Amino acid sequence: MGEGLVRVDDNDIIQVVNPKICRMLGYTEAEVLGQHAATLLNRPEDQATMAERNRQRTQGISEGYEIPLRKKSGEFLLTWLSATPVTPVEGQTSGSMAIITDITERKRTEAALRKSEERFAGAFRSSPDGIVISRLSDGLVLEANDSFCRIAGWSRDEVVGHTAAELQLWEQPAARQQYVERLRAHLREPLSQRGFLAGSGCQLSRQAGAGPSPRADGVELPG
């Protein structure tokens, strides 16, 4: 079984554990059987909440939630706990069963992704170059930074949610299609062989009176 399993009685005394949860937390089976689960595994500040959760289990309520569990080493493991009441006789509960998943790596990945997104968002907003994020399939503009709006003479609201064709952003629409074909061919290459795809260098349209037409040097998002 890939997840840890713990069964407790109505008093939160551990009755059954599987080998996986013992490995996850560093205890032997003998060290946890007969112990009060909240006292052994939960932080002091979580114990009142866990007591209420256990009370809900006696009322037949199942739920899932994130909870750090104390390892034998004293460290805490971030887990997802799915708790279900045990009902050997219909209408009567006899403790509960918890299936426990280690979500430490998932949380680490999510945090790294958030940090990466924040870095990209900061660079996108502050770049002196005009940047437009658009969908590859139809050219729908998903986002445009302030520099693009200033250079092209559009407001953000006038650009986002419209396609490149609707806005007539490309002075030569065929040039966009040629660039899309280049980009699709580039994306079909093995990641290790892709290198960097140079910009199109094509002229873009801008609002009347906004000055010379800018040049396109960007990448569009698949979609």
Structure in words:
The structure is a single chain. The protein is of the alpha+beta class and 223 residues long. It has 2 domains: 4-107, PAS domain (Beta-Lactamase); 127-216, Beta-Lactamase, CATH 3.30.450. The chain has 9 helices and 9 strands. It has helices at 19-25, 29-32, 37-41, 47-58, 104-126, 146-152, 156-159, 164-167, 173-188, and strands spanning 4-8, 14-17, 63-70, 76-85, 96-102, 132-134, 141-144, 202-203, 215-216. The strands form 3 sheets. Strands 2-1-5-4-3 form a 5-stranded antiparallel sheet. It is elongated and about 75 Å long. Residues 208-222 have low confidence and may be disordered.
Q: Uncertain spans, ≥5 residues at pLDDT below 50?
A: 208-222
In CATH, the homologous superfamily of the largest domain goes by the name: PAS domain
Can you write the helix and strand succession as a string? EEHHHHEEEHEEHHHHEE
Q: What is the overall pLDDT average?
A: 83
The number of helices is 9
Give Rg in angstroms: 28 Å
Let me know the number of strands. 9
How many domains would you count in the coordinates? 2
Summarize it.
This protein has 223 residues and is an alpha+beta fold.
Layout of secondary structure:
Elements: E1 4-8, E2 14-17, H1 19-25, H2 29-32, H3 37-41, H4 47-58, E3 63-70, E4 76-85, E5 96-102, H5 104-126, E6 132-134, E7 141-144, H6 146-152, H7 156-159, H8 164-167, H9 173-188, E8 202-203, E9 215-216
Antiparallel strand pairs: 1-2, 1-5, 3-4, 4-5, 6-7, 8-9
